[in-house]
Design brief:
The complex is a heterodimer of chains A (179) and B (504).
Chain A (H helix, E strand, L loop, with lengths): L1 H5 L15 H20 L15 H23 L11 H16 L3 E5 L2 E5 L3 H16 L5 H22 L12
Antiparallel strand pairs in A: 1-2
Chain B lengths: L1 H14 L2 H19 L5 H8 L8 H26 L8 H12 L3 H36 L2 H18 L4 H15 L2 E2 L6 E2 L13 H19 L19 H23 L5 H15 L12 H16 L1 H7 L5 H12 L7 H5 L1 H22 L3 H7 L4 H20 L2 H19 L4 H24 L6 H4 L1 H34 L1
Antiparallel strand pairs in B: 1-2
Helix pairs in contact in B: 1-16, 2-4, 2-16, 3-4, 3-9, 3-14, 3-18, 4-5, 4-6, 4-12, 4-14, 4-16, 5-6, 5-12, 6-10, 6-12, 6-13, 6-16, 7-8, 7-20, 7-22, 8-20, 9-18, 9-19, 9-20, 10-11, 10-12, 11-12, 18-19
């Protein structure tokens, strides 16, 4: 790869280095970061014992290979021209994730501690959780029509309740249970 | 031969049972629906429906799930031809010529040829699955851990070679998938690996969560970004569903070639319906007397890929049912479905559960028969579904996915993990990384590790066992050759690019 850089004087002598393929560069870098994180997370695991694998052998093997390949991609991104970074949308992904997380924490309630303060989210049950998640998802769209969405959300909620609770008889709480 | 016939008879008697026929129809209907609707993928759908199969009889459940997979291949073509948006990743290439045909007022012929091709391919593939089942099972029983490891390695290499885009990036995705698959309890020692102290991660990251995140949520996030795709539905022009004699003559060879190609690519691990349709289109273009017609409504460009994707969808059951190795993400979900019912996929399925094995195979033929009826005379109903705007559809998919994931284990953390993978999938696509090899590696990871460890133990740490055992050696040889062949043009191309650049 280093040879490639020398033989391409298009922007020769242009130092500090311009990142030529940012999509590759940052993508590869992120993979290396993931692998390094995995190495750290698996550092407590035993390795090879004689010729038998320990629990840490394969994770570390895969992590090192990923560092090599991811690093290679990142380096090639430095020297080989590639497409520019795409713009990331923020609102859409954030609201979709928000809808999913709201569903997850409200379907049966959720407890966690936030800097030592215990936080308790009440159980809202299938009906409220589904409808909430639906309406938050709606916000992620490009065009929002409130009346239509409210009706569609209600229909979808009813459909899910009938399908999952009554037809499939899955043990979901239907209504909010406060304390 | 008489063995095969009696087995098939058993299969048909099971698949022909009214209840199983009902499940088959249900699967075909859901599959068509999923196929027709763009933005709703097969993987996400099967993942969503896994919990629904809890209470069902295993044969019926698997018949239904299989129907969804090949049913989607039929439905996908309808949207491609009429709207020029692929309803399914497998019918992307059908847009090219199918939609052109529709614009020329030949939508009926295109739809009919797509369905007829799919039906022919489906029938051939059904026979193939039945015929190859027994010999492959016998081979599989000879396999030791070294052979299994090499076979899975070959599968991953295939996935890398056949994936779109850069080979190196696909390798990175495979490695990331393998790495993620090691999270959770160690098989031998029970030690929690990379769990970060979270008890939720002790069981590992659930495959359904990964698949739903990468294929379901990520897809939605991406679709929200693309400016409201104009769905210009060609309607009213669907007349004369009967193709002319000339159409049939023109498409008979492409259908045959597509079927063969699709069947082969379906069996290969790492292959599957998407690759098959692309490969078939390329092949048709290559063998055509006048390749310039392609892209301007050549019926061969519809007939070949549509036959190929359906053939591949069905033959990809072969490695799953005989070797216990899922060749693609959909089959990996089938493993999940089988495990829910306490069935371990592998060579023993055929001997221990002949009802399930042969029933499922025979159901494919019934399913194809139903699908041709669902998709041809009833095409108008499906077209009407396309009018449902995405702004109503996508929140419904999101909540349905959420409930689906939650219901598998009643676990809120699973839902959150899927959300994380949704964001990850979005970022991967933004950087031109393909999620498909990651998912396949994630599924094969634990199996590969287990077999690698066992092989090494048996060989007392001698790495050469993978090359010295004949079957394993051949598999490794093919893997290496493939990888080199795939990497060579890339290196050469890169040189060329650099060369061109330096000339400027």
């Amino acid at each position: 790869m280093a040879e490639d850089a020398k033989s391409s004087p298009a922007s020769g002598g242009n130092f500090p280095l311009r990142i030529r393929g940012p999509r590759e560069f940052y993508g590869g870098l992120a993979l290396v970061a993931l692998a390094v994180f995995a190495l750290w997370a698996s550092s407590d695991l035993a390795g090879m014992r004689g010729f038998s694998f320990g629990p840490g052998t394969t994770p570390r093997l895969f992590a090192w290979l990923l560092i090599a390949v991811g690093g290679g991609i990142a380096i090639s991104g430095l020297f080989v021209d590639g497409p520019p970074l795409e713009t990331y949308a923020l609102r859409g992904p954030a609201l979709v994730v928000c809808a999913i997380v709201v569903f997850a924490v409200t379907i049966r309630g959720f407890r966690f501690s936030f800097f030592g303060f215990p936080v308790r989210i009440p159980e809202l049950g299938l009906i409220v959780a589904t409808f909430l998640a639906y309406m938050i998802s709606v916000l992620a769209g490009r065009e929002i029509r409130w009346l239509e969405s409210l009706i569609a959300g209600a229909v979808m909620t009813a459909f899910c309740v009938v399908l999952f609770r009554y037809l499939l008889q899955l043990p979901f709480p239907l209504w909010p249970a406060f304390f | 031969m008489s063995d095969l016939l009696s087995n098939l008879w058993l299969g048909f008697s099971i698949a022909g049972h009214p209840i199983n026929l009902g499940f088959c129809l249900l699967g075909a209907l859901v599959g068509t629906l999923v196929g027709v609707l763009p933005g709703v993928g097969t993987v996400a759908t099967i993942a969503m429906l896994l919990p629904i199969t809890f209470g069902l009889d295993p044969v019926g459940a698997l018949i239904m799930l299989a129907g969804i997979y090949y049913g989607a291949q039929y439905g996908g073509s309808t949207t491609s031809i009429l709207v020029n948006i692929p309803g399914e990743a497998t019918s992307v290439v059908t847009c090219l010529d199918g939609h052109e045909m529709a614009k020329q007022g030949r939508a009926g012929a295109a739809l009919a040829i797509a369905a007829i091709g799919s039906f022919f391919a489906g029938c051939v593939a059904t026979v193939l699955v039945a015929a190859l089942g027994q010999p492959l099972t016998r081979v599989a029983l000879e396999f030791g851990p070294a052979e299994y490891f090499s076979l899975m390695l070959l599968g991953l290499i295939f996935a890398v070679v056949l994936a779109k885009g850069s080979v190196v990036k696909s390798i990175a995705m495979v490695l990331a998938g393998l790495l993620l698959s090691t999270v959770g309890s160690d098989l031998d020692t029970g030690a929690g690996r990379m769990t970060l102290g979270l008890p939720e991660l002790l069981d590992g990251i659930g495959f359904t969560n990964v698949a739903m995140g990468l294929f379901g949520f990520a897809e939605i996030i991406r679709n929200l970004e693309s400016s409201g795709a104009n769905r210009e539905i060609i309607e009213g022009k669907i007349k004369g569903l009967m193709p002319t004699r000339q159409d049939l003559k023109d498409s008979s060879w492409p259908i045959a070639r597509g079927t063969v190609l699709g069947s082969i690519l379906g069996i290969l691990p790492g292959g599957g319906a998407v690759v098959a349709s692309f490969a078939s289109y390329t092949l048709e273009k290559r063998v055509a007397k006048n390749p310039k017609r392609f892209g301007h409504g050549a019926i061969e460009g519809v007939a070949g890929p549509e036959s190929a994707n359906n053939a591949a969808a069905q033959t990809s059951f072969i490695p799953l049912l005989t070797l216990g190795i899922p060749p693609n993400a959909v089959m990996a979900l089938m493993v999940g479905a089988m495990t829910i019912h306490g069935i371990v996929p592998g060579p023993q399925v055929m001997t221990k559960q002949p009802d399930l094995f042969w029933g499922m195979i025979a159901s494919m033929w019934f399913g194809n028969l139903m699908l041709i009826i669902i998709n041809l005379p009833m095409v108008g109903i499906w077209v009407r579904l396309l009018r449902v705007p995405y702004r109503i559809l996508f929140p419904s998919i999101i909540v349905f996915c959420c409930i689906g994931i939650y219901s598998i284990d009643n676990s809120p953390s699973d839902v959150m993990i899927a959300a994380i993978f949704g964001v990850l999938g979005y970022l991967l696509v933004k950087h031109d990384f393909e999620p498909a090899p990651l998912v396949l590696a994630f599924v094969l990871g634990p199996l590969m590790e287990d077999n690698l460890r066992r092989a090494m133990l048996i060989a007392r740490g001698d790495m050469s066992v993978f090359v010295t055992r004949p079957i394993s050696g051949v598999l490794i040889f093919i893997s290496v050759t493939l990888l080199v062949l795939a990497l060579l043009p890339m290196i050469r191309k890169r040189r060329d690019e650099v060369f061109v650049e330096s000339e400027n």
